[in-house]
Amino acid sequence: MQQLEQSIKAALSTAIQQAFGASVAPDQLTIQPTRKEFAGSFTLVTFPLTKTLGKGPEQIGQALGEWLVANEPKVKGFNVVKGFLNLEIADAQWLALFEQLRRQPDGAPVPTGGPQDVVVEYSSPNTNKPLHLGHLRNNFLGYSVAEILKATGATVTKANLVNDRGIHICKSMLAYQRFGHGETPQDSGIKGDHLAGKYYVLFEKHYREEIKQLEAEGVATDVAKRTAPLMTDAQQMLQQWEQGEEEVIRLWKQMNGWVYEGFDETYKNIGVDFDQYYYESETYLLGKERVEEGLQKGVFFKKEDGSVWVDLKEEGLDEKLLLRADGTSVYITQDLGTAELKYQDYHYDLSVYVIADEQNYHMQVLKAVLHKLGKPYAEAIHHLSYGMVDLPSGKMKSREGTVVDADELVREVVEAAKAATLEKGKTEGLTEEQAEQLYHMLGLGALKYYLLKVDPKKRMLFNPEESVSLEGHTGPFIQYSHARISAIRRKALEQGVSESTDLSTLTTLHETEQEMVQELGRYAAVVAEAARNFSPAVVAQYAYDIAKAYNRFYTEVPIFVESDPVKKAFRVALSAQTARTIKASMGLLGIAVPERM
RNA sequence: GGUUGUGUAGCUCAAUUGGAUAGAGCAUCUGACUACGAAUCAGAAGGUUUAAGGUUCGACUCCUUACACGACCA
User: Fold this and answer.
1) Residue A385 belongs to what domain range?
2) Which among A328, A377, A511, A576 is placed 20 to 30 Å from A206, CA to CA?
3) ipTM summary value
């Protein structure tokens, strides 16, 4: 359709030349889809031309419209409303566009001239607790953005940077040592990541008790927090870990192993995957080397106590600690190492970090520091900053136990989908296994769509009831349209109506048919825009628009009672193309679509 | 205190990046299943886009100030 738009612009440019003797390049003209309440398909805004042409907006529209209808066969009619020239496009053009769309092979890339080698880092869990609702938004976003960039023809690597070291990991380990009695996921039946999480919570509980105890003995709160035995023990454990003490490393490996098994199960269940794992335990040393490099280059400096800093005041930021006085690393130290490693591995021209917006400052600093180090990949870094997920009761806080567990949430949405499907009695003819797959597809479709339809950068509210809803602006609404079309296609097959029937004798289109074709033609532009803005929400909105347009078409235009065989075949083909486009769009969101539901 | 993001219908979100009468869903009300699937469709109602100025043919969008909420940095 971009070609069609281009040719309309070119024709308009010629029209301006012919009617006004002025030259305006096609690229300078902006045309947009015509609003539904007016006749026509494309609209030229004529206000911007008034200065160069020295005429009023309506006069310009009228003159250009007349010239086009007389000289350009692609334009069959026009109307002018104030400064807007609405052009009606000849049916032959829409039919040609449709031919082009249906001939395109599945998964044909949409070239945008954007980056070619891309790394998308997402998920990035801590190994001390299971995934929660916030991680789900992160995972769905990361997966989807990677798929969208792939669709533009880029080579994309999905990376997961696991935060597997640090004081918080030691807290779980310590609590397990103290209170675990050798419990394992196998004999307790608790999923590995949840088991680690259980001990993290236990640590916090006992730690709080110790603080209370100390306070009762007259110790000041901040001192109590620092000197509570559990805390000092955890810190000691971290040092032992860094020194490679055997028993600590053994426990660390054992517990992380449990957690990874748990994560793998969750990832598989929610349908996300990774091409590459990075572990902070393996990058923090590389990060320390970068700090050393910065000192040698003279872009970092050492304070009297031995800590290393960078001055970013010129960049509008502040001084930032890069290495503690005792030589231990901080978050950004590890990030410097990971960035370096990623670049060594992939020589990316774009590196996307899917990280919540609370890290905005941190990411700015990271970029600035890499810039100071003269790293060529500093500019290639893009922080896909997304808003946190709020609950109706307010912010999610792990300490207050108001987190929504990912595994449990998925179970609930699948359960809700199952209940709704059974209630509608639509499982006949399905095997037990097929039915379970369907519930999973629908439940997850609802959840993913719910989290992805909102602009990533906006903080969003998670309403449990709405998230499992299957009606209205939801994933299952779109899935339903697909299932419905599948029924049409089955029937067409029975009746011997081929989707690839020759349609060259067809010359006219029903109005809703024309709108449908135009809507389907937007796909490439939508993918390009979504990629440019790193926004799955754009694709989500589009998938909904198509489904809605098709549902209207479906009720307005009968298919199988049509007597003209070519028209009938066209409607079947149009339905099939709609199904393909829905499937492709939803695929970019990581949502599968069913043949029946 | 400094930096920064957000503010649109009762609620949750859009608005083709400065274009027409600001659109959807939920909730409320009305109508449509003996034509291809009603998880659907058609319709009603719901708005001073936080406020006040400014820029211009035109502002939810850009600028200034204020207010509210959030995040980050001390």
Assistant:
1) 113-163+275-404
2) A328
3) 0.96
